[in-house]
Design brief:
With about 325 residues, the protein is α/β, with parallel strands linked by helices. It has eleven helices and eleven strands. The strands form two sheets. The chain has a six-stranded mixed β-sheet with strand order 2-1-3-10-4-11, with helices on both faces. Helix 2 packs across helix 9. It starts with a helix and ends in a 7-residue tail after the last helix. Keywords: Signal.
Length: about 325
């Protein structure tokens, strides 16, 4: 009888443990959700967080708290996500630099491919090559000629290994440029220094640069997308001059690995509903974003693809490790 009671107690405990994740998921979320933005306010990642934050909170039933953690091209914020519990209460919006930081940032405390759950690539926006108005170049050919003649010119990026850095590095490789790279903690401080005359040119997300292009404060030279942007149809694509040139800014939702399946499913469904909301889609369109909302598998494949591009640039010593 004693052995039978012990056996029943153990069986009951095992059953309780087996249903615990499901019960946990049914109560998710029961508190606010932290959304890490690993860049400074004002850039494309922060824009994306502000566009989806309230609507995602409504879809999940709890507020989304945006937490800007800039530094090391997004690696500071990614490190915080890596240390978070996989309970669905800490998420992050990753920039394209997430895919390539491991090639150039030393001693990262995480594995880019194993330490994160890539839930959905949400949006892309073309990178646009821009210059200050006082740079004597009004088109792509004139800018390349100017930079070849002025090797002490400098370009900015939203951070080492960001899409802006990759695009500028590929331009340097294709045209033999020797210009200096100046990394920032996001596109907003980059823009400030470009307008202030501290750097000469940059590739940056069109979503951030578009208002300043339209106001005439900076000059648009070319976009990095495969085709011209509908927002700026008179501005050529770089691949009209350098075939195959393409590396857009992308932003996706990332979580720690190991979340309960039901929690993960709730988040993915909520994100799908938000990204297909007409008002959200309109706001993204007005800001020059293209909605993707791809599958976790597609997102992980994009991360691998971009990692391979950076690996080649590092091997050619076009980009060097910090």
């Amino acid at each position: 009888m004693i052995h039978r009671r012990i056996w029943l107690a153990c069986a009951g405990a095992a059953l309780a443990c087996s249903v615990l994740p499901s019960a946990w998921a049914q109560g998710y979320p029961s508190q606010s959700i932290r959304l890490i933005v690993p860049f400074a306010p004002g850039g494309a990642v922060d824009q994306t967080a502000r566009i989806i934050g309230n609507r995602l909170g409504e879809a999940l039933g709890q507020p989304i708290v945006i937490d800007n953690k800039p530094g090391a091209s997004g690696s500071v914020g990614a490190g915080e996500l890596h240390r978070a519990r996989p309970d669905g209460y800490t998420l992050m919006l990753a920039l394209d630099s997430q895919a390539v930081n491991h090639h150039i940032v030393k001693n990262l405390p995480f594995d880019t491919f194993k330490s994160f759950d890539y839930l959905s690539l949400l949006v892309t926006t073309p990178q646009i090559l821009v210059t200050r108005n006082d740079v004597p170049a009004k088109n792509f050919g004139e800018l390349v000629a100017y930079l070849q003649a002025h090797p002490k010119s400098s370009y900015g990026s939203a951070g080492t290994a960001s899409a802006g850095h990759v695009n500028s590095a590929q331009l340097s490789l294709a045209k033999g440029l020797k210009t200096e790279h100046v990394p920032y903690k996001g596109a907003a401080p980059l823009l400030t220094d470009l307008l202030g005359g501290h750097i000469d040119y940059a590739f940056a997300g069109l979503s951030v640069m578009l208002p300043h292009i339209k106001s005439g404060k900076i000059r648009a030279i070319a976009v990095s997308s495969p085709r011209r942007s509908a927002q700026l149809p008179d501005v050529p694509a770089v691949n009209e001059f350098i075939p195959g040139f393409e590396f857009p800014t992308w932003i996706g939702l990332v979580a720690p690995p190991g979340m309960p399946a039901d929690v993960r499913g709730k988040i993915i469904k909520a994100v799908h509903d938000v990204m297909h909301d007409p008002q959200v889609a309109r706001r993204f369109g007005d800001s020059a974003f293209d909605i993707v909302n791809g599958s976790p598998e597609d997102f992980a494949a994009r991360v691998r693809k971009d990692s391979d591009v950076m690996a080649d640039l590092v091997a050619r010593k076009i980009v060097t490790a910090d």
